[in-house]
Write a structure and sequence with these properties.
By secondary structure, the protein is an alpha/beta fold. It has ten helices and nine strands. Bound molecules: adenosine monophosphate.
């Protein structure tokens, strides 16, 4: 596995692969890898010849109160995990090489970025879409791999690919979970042992909503009430950023569900903000 830090070096390396007819995939990440990241890397390797994993803690997607400075980092460990997953190139750019001081061009999804995490983290998705657009332009991948764990993010990238005519096959893979149901996340490292015990109850609440949906309940207010109740009742010290049921494609909130939907939550346990979601109706 090559570790590449410079944009020009990456472009040159990939151009050589492309001349030899190799297909290329991109897996954008912020590092501190877990099995969720590894599942994306391995699937990328099954589907394309060359796998590029970008590792960049993107300052543009963090708000002033967010955890940019303390976001967990361990390049040596990440390097070993990526190598084991048969990644070809680990691209580790520096912020000053991606953004000049005079940077002023941004990518924004107007409506999809408004609700859910867009409300509790203003500017977050502008940062995500902008960095992913830059990575797409630098790497020029045939396919790009994202996790369903960040449901709204994946929808925004899907829309961006369509709206900006990127010729990239988007693959969104299922959420990888710990045995007790907790969605794997680099931020789980922040949890104290007591908080870690509470955290799996997020997925339990999402499953309770899915059970209600499967019984035939389609009123969004009833499904959301159930979700909030389960979270607040069961998780000690939980504070909800949001707990909502939305239409799966538009992320709008109808009174009654008529098509596929998603139940999505952001919960603060102590100082750690965790997100998770479950789809309703396959
Ligand atoms: P991050 O490093 O947290 O920005 O995540 C990089 C990519 O991995 C994103 O596409 C995430 O959606 C995906 N991802 C994060 N956690 C998981 C998980 N538990 N299962 C599957 N994919 C994940």
């Amino acid at each position: 596995m090559k570790i590449i830090r410079k944009i020009q070096q990456l472009r040159k390396t990939l151009a050589a692969y492309r001349r030899r007819g190799k297909t290329i995939s991109l897996v954008p990440t912020m590092g501190y890898f877990h099995e969720g990241h590894v599942s994306l890397m391995k699937q990328a390797k099954r589907e394309t010849d060359i796998v590029v994993v970008s590792l960049f803690v993107n300052p543009l997607q963090f708000g002033p109160k967010d955890d940019l400075k303390k976001y967990p980092r361990d390049l040596r460990r990440d390097q070993k995990m990526a190598e084991r997953a048969k990644v070809d190139i680990l691209f580790v750019p520096e912020a000053r090489d991606l953004y000049s001081k005079a940077h002023e061009t941004y990518v924004m999804a107007e409506n999809l970025a408004k609700p859910l995490c867009g409300l509790s983290r203003p500017g977050h998705f502008r940062g995500v879409a902008t960095v992913v657009a830059k990575l797409f332009n630098i790497v020029g991948p045939d396919a790009a791999f994202f996790g369903r764990k960040d449901y709204q993010q994946a929808r925004i990238i899907e829309k961006m690919i369509e709206d900006l005519s990127y010729n990239i096959r988007l693959r969104v893979l299922p959420t990888v979970r710990e045995k007790d149901g907790l969605a794997m996340s680099s931020r789980n490292a922040y949890l104290s042992p007591l908080e870690r015990k509470e955290a799996p109850k997020i997925y339990a609440a999402l499953k309770a909503v899915r059970a209600l949906y499967k019984k035939g309940e389609r009123r969004v207010s009833v499904l959301e009430h159930k979700l909030k109740q389960e979270l607040v009742k069961n998780i000690r010290g939980a504070r909800l950023d949001y707990a909502e049921v939305r239409e799966a494609v538009s992320l709008t909130r109808p009174a009654r569900l008529k098509s596929k939907a998603v139940a999505a939550v952001a919960v603060r346990i102590g100082t750690t903000r965790l997100i998770d979601n479950i789809t309703l109706g396959e």
